Model the fold of this input.
Amino acid sequence: MEIVCTPEELRIFELVGNASAELNVSCYLIGGFVRDKLLGRPTKDADIVCTGDGIALAHAAAALLKPRPHVSFFKNFGTAHFRYNDFDLEFVGARKESYRAESRKPDVEPGTIEDDQLRRDFTINALAISLNKDDFGKLTDPFDGLADLERKIIRTPLGPDVTFSDDPLRMMRAIRFATQLNFEILPEVFEAICRNCERIKIISQERITDELNKIMAAAKPSVGLDLLYKSGLLKHFFPQAVDLTGVEIIEGKGHKDNFYHTLQVIDNTAAKSDNLWLRWAAFLHDIGKPATKKFEDGHGWTFHGHEVVGERMTPRIFKQLKLPLNDRMKYVAKLVALHLRPISLTKEDITDSAMRRLLFDAGEDLEDLMILCESDITSKNKMKVKKYLENFEIVKERLVAVEENDRIRSWQPPISGDEIMQIFNLTPSREVGVLKNTIREAILDGVIPNTFEAAYALLVEKGKELKIQPVGNFIRPSGGEG
Ligand code: ATP
Ligand code: MG
Done:
């Protein structure tokens, strides 16, 4: 393993070294940058620690760069940051920490580079590289982190119970790194996580969710989600997910374990899309199952309406996990609500109007819904999966054909509400809504084509029922073709 820096990175690091010599302090690259460089992973931000004032070093280094970057800093934390080209540099003074039981905020005092390495969470995050003239580029590795990088192991520099009890967020970080890097958490370290899982309660939900989202964004989120479950962490912040676990057997009939099924669906989705919110839709697609589970004689296990229950649970879960309560949440709730629809179209004798309804309801999210639905096809029976996937392809083709013909996805009514009011000389009222719905339903059902003329004729008919008739000659504004 070796570190390969770009000439630009080297130039910046040498300047930082010069700045620290001016200030008479030593400085080192440390943490994620060193780890990721050694692993050959792309990285665009570097943490620099110095035996002295990190803010002063940041200013001195910035003064040597052209154009001179703007330094932002937090006096209280003693940290400073600047961005140069697209490279982020973070400066901090080396420190020594000691913890008390009730808080993850340690007492901090200035320390040596060794003190600073000792407070790091994992051996692979404690590697430091000197930027000082006399030993520029030298790696300091007090806890054998390099060997752990090679063996792909997550290990703590101190006893793991101390590490996790001092700052319980590290339990989430261990699982996140294991997932992102495809590393194994050393068994005794994982056992310490299990023992200390309850301590996660002192961590704010925002920080927990930050880590959770990093797990969700990894190539194979199931690795981390399974570890979260097995360690006992998950139940403390997302008990609804834990409710998905387990298999019940009645009269010899079992249902599938919905937790492990869900993990499979998340991985399948992740293989097809980087969209974090689509992955969240996969996480929540069956979340309504435990509440709707029934054993029906003669039938076996059913989960009727779990998609509706799941849709309703979504805002609550987003709030609980401090996920954004905006259109992202609405998108996830919508996909949860619709997740059974595409597969239901694989049955025989499906009409075009069922296709149109799905195009209408899914709208711009149809592709994502199809990814979710396809990912939901999991079974131990390979033949079954193959058959389903083949039928699913047929549905996709039909949806494309119906959409080409009828243009439902970005559907605008051929006659707007305003126009309906003009045609019948109505003020905003219930009738306007009824007439609008009549047009939409007739088009989706294929009773009339998606044109102005057909919709106008239908309006006149429906108007008779409501005892209203068009007044005078309605002239269509130009540009509004049906
Ligand atoms: P990434 O940037 O990919 O999240 P990282 O390792 O750089 O990974 P940061 O959160 O940026 O993680 O932290 C930078 C470094 O600070 C870490 O490598 C680690 O040495 C140290 N660190 C961060 N959080 C903690 C913590 N909770 N306890 C101990 N050390 C930590
Ligand atoms: Mg980092």
